[in-house]
Amino acid sequence: MRAEANVTSRVKITPPPAGYALFEALKWGNKILVDEASLSTAYFMTSNFQVVPVFTKETGSFSATSANHSYYVRAKGDMEAIWNLQPKDGRTQEVMFNPIVETGNYGKTMWTNSTLTWDEAPEWVAGSQLYGGQMFAATIQTFSALCQRPNKPLGYVQCRKVYPFKREHFNLSHESHPWLINKYTVAFRKPVEDTYSETFNGLIRYLPMQCLDPADFKFAGSKIPTYYTPVNWSIPAAV
To answer: Would you say 104 and 117 are in contact if contact means Cβ atoms under 8 Å apart?
Structure first.
């Protein structure tokens, strides 16, 4: 009876809009990601968060940082909204944010683009990316996009359009919308290269799926982007 109660009390995953399906981004160390983008801790010689870059036609860039980034804005309540996603487990904001926000540029999943710390900066930069091992929603239909993956020559690649994160999604939960509220995932070098983890310093951290809707969030480029991911960089999500 107890087991049945646990099953019925689970929060059901809300499906994506019509025309979209749920996928799971491949994890670092996957042969495809290593071959096409060198996504392995052995290549970078350090542990890293599980960044899986996305492509935008508008910038012509296949990167999480150089051109394809957006901004969280303190004045719009984005910082508190991310904090409110976290489990109420007694941690402080310093413990939550210090490991994931870089003072300066590019060293972590978010950065301040200045000498200011995360609790001083008026906005944070967020690299447009998927998190390895986490769900996202993308179109069932595929598109042929002319792009250059990091380790491949320029060519046409079959891609899916990624459903972006909107500010209204801050009100959702990982339990019901794991494809919009992700776990912060890490690739460690021990016990073996690319050891996958959904905890960092012993803590789970929840973050928005980091392809931010340009209708809600300022984008670095001058054109409104659409995010694409190669078909072979993900698998259908088991839901």
So the answer is: no
